[in-house]
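## retry 2 of 3
previous attempt timed out at serialization; input unchanged, resubmitting
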Amino acid sequence: MDMHQAAIRPHMRTLGVNWGGASAEAVKIAWRKAARQAHPDVAGETSTEDMARINAAYAALKNGVPKKKSLAPGPRHTLKLCEMLVDSKIQPTG
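## retry succeeded, writing output
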């Protein structure tokens, strides 16, 4: 897990969105739902800290949740591997 993932994971939990590319619209819907439940007029005076946490989470995620990076090698890595096989005269099995 890189630093960016570690920084936004608590915000994702606060709003209840999943890692893996939640759109800005999905984040906004989750924020509205959480804010409605924790609003001081609905939940009482003790929820002001919750509202601050929810608003901070929305501010961090309002452009959408980034997609998970694939662990599979990309096309450049695959091309480099093929070049190494050709250069070493190793025949792939299979």
